Amino acid sequence: MDSLINCRNQQRIFLSLVILLVLTSCTSKFAGDSDSLLNHLPQPKDKIIHFDNTTRISDFKIKHSAFKLKEIGNNLSGITWDPYNNQYFAIQNNSAIIYRYDRDFNFLGKMKKKGRINNDTEGVSFYEGLHLFVVTEANTAHKIKIDQNAFDKQYYYPLQGYVLANRPKIKNKGFEGIAYRPKSEKRQALVYVAQEGTGRDNKAKMKIYSFNPQVTSKFMKDMLYFGDKELSVNEPFNAEKQFKGIISDISGMTFDPTGETLIIVSQESSKAIQVDPNTGRVLSQLPLSGAPSYEGVTIGPSGELVFVSEKNWIQIYTTN
């Protein structure tokens, strides 16, 4: 009798273990694509070196002559180095096409958009491995999914859209830049976006906005608006006031690898500036040359400053 009871108990324990393993497997499967479960995300393949919180862009110099990306017909407008996917993503305006390059700018492929995204895409930023953020002239930002399936099928689609401000009254002076600031022990993760402005018309103002990239719609809306309770949009500083006499427009931006400073490029002023992202205080300046009409900037895998121009030029600055 005792042996029969022990046998039944062992059977119950075995069944419980099987059920537990099945539930664990299912949970992992469906949780794998969630932003909140960062342990499921791919990790950066390269640690960006030669750049810390004491680095100033005024110490950078042109590495070699500018070169063209021949795969892009025209209107290259933004770039980001993605340390998770170990490649550059470059975006073209008036087409919403994203081009992919390895660390040496060998062409890997391109992706066209599907879904509700304005064609006039102006900037792109990496975001936590499975996604990118793109920004459009219509003052919207979009979180898009990228994975091997997107690379193979050569298209991307929006997961969540964010209308962050009214469109400016002056045509073609909307959002131009976007940059992801990863979280740290002292701060939450934020996405910064920049409204272009211009020195040629005082009605078009430079502006910097920030928002929480992990916000999604509770009601499955494909677009969140700056008036919604779910989406909090902040203006950390007055860009016109802080940048007066230094730059007259914003054409692109990126955070340094530490997330402590924001690097902004100005097309009209042919200059890059490095600022405190909380106050807008200008910490360093870098006059630009070598290519016309600078439109975007990123930090490359070895800490180099990589600038793109609308005529599809790449110009690299380094400290050595």
Helix-strand sequence = HEEEEEEEEEHEEEEEEHEEEEEEE
CATH architecture: 6 Propeller
In terms of structural class, how would the helical and strand content be classed?
A: mainly beta
Quick one: biggest sheet? 5 strands, antiparallel
- Rg calc: 22 Å
Per CATH, the class reads Mainly Beta
Summed up, the helix count is 3
Termini separation comes to 82 Å
Averaged pLDDT: 86
Q: What is the share of helical residues?
A: 10-25%
The geometry reads as globular
Number of domains: 1
Task: Walk me through this protein's architecture.
By secondary structure, the chain is mostly beta strands. It has one domain (44-318): Neuraminidase (6 Propeller), CATH 2.120.10. Helices cover 13% and strands 35% of the residues. It is built from three helices and 22 strands. The chain has helices at residues 2-31, 148-153, 239-243, and strands at 61-62, 67-68, 76-82, 87-92, 98-101, 107-113, 121-127, 131-136, 140-145, 155-156, 158-163, 175-181, 190-195, 207-211, 223-225, 252-255, 262-266, 271-275, 282-287, 294-299, 305-309, 313-318. The strands form five sheets. Strands 1, 2, 20, 21 and 22 form a five-stranded antiparallel β-sheet that branches. A five-stranded mixed β-sheet has the order 3-4-5-6-10. Strand 4 (87-92) and strand 5 (98-101) form a beta hairpin.
Protein topology:
Blueprint: H1 2-31, E1 61-62, E2 67-68, E3 76-82, E4 87-92, E5 98-101, E6 107-113, E7 121-127, E8 131-136, E9 140-145, H2 148-153, E10 155-156, E11 158-163, E12 175-181, E13 190-195, E14 207-211, E15 223-225, H3 239-243, E16 252-255, E17 262-266, E18 271-275, E19 282-287, E20 294-299, E21 305-309, E22 313-318
